Structures are given as C-alpha cells and as structure tokens.
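[SOLVED] Need 3D model of a two-part complex

Original post:
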Amino acid sequence: MLLKKLTEACGMPGGEGEIREIILAEIKDYVDDIKIDRLGNIIATKNGKPGFAKIMIAAHMDEVGLMVKSIDDGGFIKFAQAGGLDERILVSKPVLVGKNKIPGVIGAKAIHLQEPEERETPLKTKQLYIDIGAKSKEDTEKLVKRGDYVAFDSEYVEFGNNLVKAKALDDRAGCANIIEILKHEYDVTIVAAFTVQEEIGLRGATVAAYNINPDIAIVLEGTLCSDVTNVPEASFITKLGEGPALSLMDSRTLFPKNLAKRIYDLAEKNGVKIQYRLPSAGGNDAGAIHTTREGIPCAAISVPCRYIHSASSVMSKDDFEGCKKAVKLFLEDIKEGEYIHE
Amino acid sequence: MSKINNDLLKKLLETFGPSGNEETIREIIREEIKDYADEIKVDALGNLIAIKKGQGKKIMVAGHMDEIGIMVSNIDENGFLRFTNIGGVSPFTALYQRVMFVDGTLGVVGMEKLDEMKDLALSKMFIDIGVYSKEEAMKKVNVGDVACFYTPFVQNGDYIMSKALDDRIGCYVAIEALKALKDCANEVYFVFTVQEEVGLRGARTAAYGVDPDMGIAIDVTTTGDTPKCKTMDVKMGNGAAIKVKDSSILTHPEVKKLMVEVAKENNIPYQLEILEAGGTDSGAIHITRSGVPSGVISIPCRYVHSPSEMVSVKDVESAIELLCKILQK
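Solution:
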C-alpha cells in the first residue's frame, strides 16, 4: 500500500532521496515530463489542453527527525533536531540511524538516578542519547557517522474508526494524494512539486515555485489537529474525521478567500466532507509559493493529523480520501481561461 | 491654513482593510487616483499599482493599504467570538475596544475573569457582538471573518488621531504626491501594497513585477517624545523622518543622501530616524531581484498599532512635499 510504503520510508530535510525514488517510480507512467531541480525537488508536468491554466500542486517529501552530532566514548550517539520537534516526546522512542537503518533507542538517565529537580522538568535533547547497542566508540563508528540522519522507527498501523497511525503523515499523506491525483486526466496543466526541506523553512518550495511560475498553486499537507481530551473546542484547529481542512490563515500566509471558498463549496455540493482549518500558528509551502515572482494565489488543503511531528501521528483515512476528492473536483471545475495571468 | 484634505483622510482612515482584506480600501484609492495615473493595475496578491509615465528612472513608491486586525477562530454556544490577531495586536490595547466587520457589524472586545491583569492574552479574550446564541451570531459573522478597530477620525489643531494611520497616512501622502506630480522626468510606480503588517508580503511581489531602479516606502514610525518612553530621536511635529535603519533595512546611503539634500534645498523640515524594532515595505523591496537601492520617508506617529494612533498635520505636509521634490529630481 502506497501510504504505508511512503510513511515507513525515511526522508529528513536535505536527505529526501529514498522518498524521491519511491515517488519517481510511482508517477513515471502518468506524467509527460519529470525534472529534479538542484535542491532535489521533483517537478512533474502533466500537460492539459491549451487555453487552460497551469496549476502547481505541492507536497513536501521531508519529515522531521534527528541528525547524529557526535559519538561519545561509550558509543552513545548525541544528536540534534532536523526540523521542529517537541523534545519531550523523544525519550524511549525506537529509531533508525543512517542509510543502513541501524536500529537504536533514545535513552536517558533512569528516573531513580535523577535529582528531584530533574524529575520536575521534561528531558532536553542534550540529556538524551541514542543507544544502538554498541560496546564502544569504535564499535558505533563502524555503523554510524556524524551527519547521519535519524528517523523514528514506526510502523504504519490501521486501527479504530478507519484511522491510521504512522510517522511522517506530515506530509507523505500529501505526497500520496498527489500521486493518486496524477493518475487521472484533466483539462488544466498540472505541475506536481514534491518539495524538499519544508520542515526547516519552506526552502524547496521557494525555488520550485520560481521555476514553475504557475497561475495558481494548491498545497497538500498534514496539519494540526487537537480535538482531544482537555482541549477546548476553540483550540481544536481541525477535527479528525470531519474532512480535509482548507486553510484561512497561518503564520506565513493569508489565503485568498474566494479560492478556498470555491474548493469548500464544490466539495460540499458533491457530498465530500470538508472543514476550514482555523487560524493558528504554523506554516506550509504556500508561505513561500504565494510571494514568488509577482505573486501566486494559493490554497492549502490538509489532512488533520493528531500528534503531528511525532513518531505516532494519527489521521483518518476518510479525511485522506476526501482531500484527494476535493482537489480533483476543483481541478475538473476550472474552465478555459480561468486563473490565467499574463 | 492647513492644506490637508480632511474628507479624503477620513475616508481612507475609517475604511475597513485588515491584511488580506484590502478590497474596499483598494477601490477607494483607485477611485481617488484614476484621473491622475497613466495606467492602473492590480496584481495577483491585490497590490494596486498606478503608473505615472516618464522617460527617466523607474521609481517605486510604496504605501501599504492594510491595517492590523483580528480573525474569528471560533463561535461559542452563547454567540461569543474567539479570535486571533492579524499583525501586531496587543491584548492590552485591544481590551474593551470596539471592532468592525466588513459588513459593518460592530462588537466589543471582552475578557475572561483573570486573577492578574498581566495574564491577559488574546486567547483569554472574546468579541461580543450583542447576540444571545451561536445561531444568531452566525447570521452576522462566520469563522474566518476579519475585523478592524472601530474608531472615528479626529482632527484637532495640528494633530490627527485615528485607527489605521499605519499606513493609510502613507497612502494619503502617496495619493497627494501623485496628484501634485504634473510633469515628471522619472517613471513613477505608486504602489498601494497589501499584507505589509504580516510580513511585507505585497511589497515583495509588487517590487518583483515593477523591477524599479529605486524604492521609497512611506510609512509611520514610532516617536521618542512621550513621558518616560523608550529613547528615540524622533519627535511628532519636527518634520518628515528620513529613515536611516530599522529591522528590515539599512537605507541605501545614496538614497539617504538624496533625501537629505532635497529636504535641505527646499527647506522642508526633516529628522533622521533610527528605528530599533520594526520594518516596512522597503525591507522587501531592497532585496528584490538583484537589489534595489531603497529608503523610507516616515511620518512620526505616537501609539502605533492602537485604535488611536496620532500624527502631526505638519509632518504629513512635509512628507508630501519631500516625496514630490524627490520624484521630480
């Protein structure tokens, strides 16, 4: 299954190669042209009819993870973050280190050795290490080197009410949806951008959008969802199972209302559940795309993900399917000449 | 005798236009300038670009149309609206202020009971639009709707007090300069930008499109002339401020020199401005494409980002004159 394959593969910011290979194999029969730019973005074009707009659809290949910083005398690995992680969630997580995916676990001083005040505050990255079961520095150095990426070791599991637990749903869910979207025919020209380095500052999208210079862009994402116990409804941002979420405003973008509303109304009319993502912090590739060149109107449509940026994010398969449907409905609805700018 | 156009100022200042919602204010400005510009266009982000044709250098003048505001994020069972900020809205300045939605719906900002006032945060505040249920509220307002402060324009002697002087006063200066500019050797692009308050976004795309030889932003700056305020060598009433630096730009030395020379030659009151925190459209313009020498003419403004910002009419007139003379040079 495509989403299982994509989420279990590893691709930290700047090290998206494994994901890129999977995507290239999946899309090659469905597009007219494939380029990989110098930052590593995949730019795949599916030609439409003349007179119809050029639509960029973007999802990022990278996920949040860690990077090996140093190896101590005992063979334990000190690490840094690659992308924004809540360090409180790191301890005791199984991980995979480097290209050869050496298994390890994130360790910390045992609780009975901690001073009382240490127990009061969550463990910080510098207090943690990765244990790959090596006996010594030399032993570890045979398998791991500085700069190696570290990913969570987390299996794709389906559970509950059509839900999925996996790592990296942000944004392999978006990648998987673009792949599916490319398998259909449209009047508009679609330029799919599978971008790099979103998690560390929208860097891939910045150059991809410049290069593609589309009429409009749609960003497919995984986004915050805090519809859980002890959170007031005003802070949910999105609700699981209520459909994909259209962005109104985040830290990086004020989304044009008419574009978001058109996608929302089309979905609703066609019986596809859809919701708005309530304004909150965070940002996605749209932040870079919409200020490119003379400005590119953007929409962002996201699969709500509980526990995003962790080893176990959770989404609803219904929301995931709905996202693809809503985007398809919009692409098929675009008329000749619409959205085209000189 | 003041030459200030009060009718126009009132209209510019009282119009609704938080970042991303500049449609109404754009139409007002377009209507005001249409007889004076050789060409007018609107770009993909909504920037209004008015061109005054000429044979010389291409100069971009930028004043931003947007103002700070709030966006509704949730409506509760009793019809109270939770909200988030668009741009720099302080919870302390927003408390108990009136706000206005695009359709004219008014509300007041209230707060939950707090043990200590220092705990005040936007997340503990709400907007009351005077309804009794969610259903009733949703007839007027929906999630994602935006509002701005609601305070009338006031002129009293030399000072003007209003919401949104940041940066409708810059728009006003640009409009008056455009009107006054009869024949001009240079080709001037008057750009009324969008989304400055959320990160100079409109200016970035407009500057890319215009590709100017020089950029001049017109915006407000803070002052150092109120009791026990942060030290700053800018005073309201002491003339247009020529920016030397802020967080977004170090003014190009040639642009600064030109501005100072023109001010001196024409006896226009001016002061130099070093703003320690904050930025404006020139911050985006000067790093566009392969770089654009840029500067800023600032209007000294007290209480920036509050519902009652304050500027001096004399400073506004100095700014208009300075801009006109620079554009003609």
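Edit: The mean pLDDT of chain A is 96.
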